[in-house]
Amino acid sequence: MTASPLVHRSTSIAALCALTFAAGCRDEVEPPPPEGPVAWPNQASRANSDRWLIEHHDEIDVLRPRVLVLDFVDGDTLGAARDLADRIIAGLTESSRPKGDVDAEALPALEPEVFGVVDLRDDATPGAPRVNSSRYPREDPVLGMWGFDYEALFSAEYTALLDLRDPDRPGDGPLDLCTAIDRGLVHEIWVYGDGDTPDVSAAEILEHKPVYDLEGNPTGAMDRCAGNGCFDEEDDIPCARTVRIGWVNSTRGPGCFLESLGHGLESIGAWNEDIVPAFSRHFIPFANYRLDERYGVPADSWYACPYDRPCLAYPTTTSVAYVLDAGSGEIADYDAVCGNVHWPPNGRAQYDLLNAGPVLTSCDHYGDGTDDKAEFTNAAFAPYRELAPDCMGPFLVWWRQRWPGPHTDKVAADGTPMKSWWPYLYY
Q: Is residue 159 within a helix (H) or strand (E), and if so which, with residue range?
């Protein structure tokens, strides 16, 4: 019998028994009210897009989604894949502590766990050429935007290669990815690949997600463009629940993947506001979108700035001057609120983490009804330069810490109460 390539599970079989409703361990009665923090997954709900997430949204203290890591990198170790996943998780966990940089008692709202690291390498020899293995699913010929064959991950071939097993239903054999997601064994997939060797293109983050109305109820539609881009039309994603697939570059650090995940947040938050509109209506002002509506700027956001030059300057701490291809101008009473993935509140160009110059922003008071402003410089996220050192990582830890968290009392400008943003990720 061939050994399973699934080399690590961080969740105990006893815990999974409570999560999977497996035959022989399912309690047919309603589970008693939980003692202590309300966590998801739990006995009542374990899978993405469960109705329970909607009905108990305001009660959830912490989410503990399970990540499946697919290691395709020859010449690398499984330990390296696991180490990078753990470092990413550390950044995600810290980033979910509301204002954790100033509140030592703040508890994380998100604590991902690694369900397993699947060995999909051809050559595990130390020092071998670092390339993506033959098991890396390549389209030939390439169809659509992505040469990475996303549909293949859901095929019978990859069901055998991944060899995912429900520990409480050993007689079931290997599970396809949709079944693993439906049973709540896996909540998202991280592809660990080598980004320095030429290969077919893959997206930073793609997501196939149910569409919701403003009250948070599913409409019955699915959207294949909930990530940073869309699954290609020829890629059939046969699951009825949220499927999120991220691409982790093995040659970079955790900050770069936090940036990739951030673009996925911007997608459901601002770029595709009809997917989870209850989230979007509050995320858009937080992340400094709709500049055209707020200030008459000839762009929705500062993403319109070309990547090869600075576009913004700050004559005072409450004003900004901009030069875009579509036009230029100055905003005398400007508030960047919390900025977005490429743009800290005092950013002068795409990816600017170096500006020590201060601006006044309402980010720390977002949703508290005061409209008060506080000084922001790059010193705000300096504590996270080791935790998530590359790409926009340090800033994004700080940025997520400003999200409305569990049991929030934040309200929108129109008086609409806000919910914690974290459960929306697994709707």
A: helix 156-162
Task: Provide the 8-state DSSP code for 110.
Answer: B
Let me know: does 138 contact 90? Beta carbons within 8 Å: no
**pTM to 2 decimals?**
0.91
Domain locations along the chain:
13-282, 288-404
Partners of 374 in the β-ladder: 361
Interacting residues of 141 by C-beta distance below 8 A, sequence separation 6+: none
Q: Which of 14-23, 51-60, 261-270 has the lowest mean pLDDT?
A: 14-23
Q: Buried (b) or exposed (e) across 127-153, using 16+ Cβ within 10 A?
A: eeebbbbebbbebeeeeebbbbbbbbb
Pull the structure tokens for residue 401. 């810490």
CB atoms within 10 A of CB 405: 24
pLDDT digits (tens, 9 = 90+) for 285-320: 999 999 999 999 999 999 999 999 999 999 999 999
Distance, CA of 321 to CA of 329 (rounded, Å): 6
Tokens 């919701």 correspond to what residue? 212
Closest to 424 (Cα-Cα) out of 409, 410, 405: 405
Local structure of residue 269 (DSSP, 8 states) = I
347-357 residues labelled b (16+ CB within 10 A) or e (exposed): bbbbebeebee
What six digits make up the tokens of 171? 């007689």
Which class for 32: exposed (0-12), middle (13-18), buried (19 or more C-beta within 10 A)?
Answer: exposed
CA distance 273 to 244: 18
Q: Are 70 and 120 in contact (CB under 8 A)?
A: yes
- Phi, psi angles (nearest 5°) of residue 26: -80, 135
Contact 93, 110 (CB under 8 A): yes
How large is the C-alpha radius of gyration of the chain?
Answer: 22
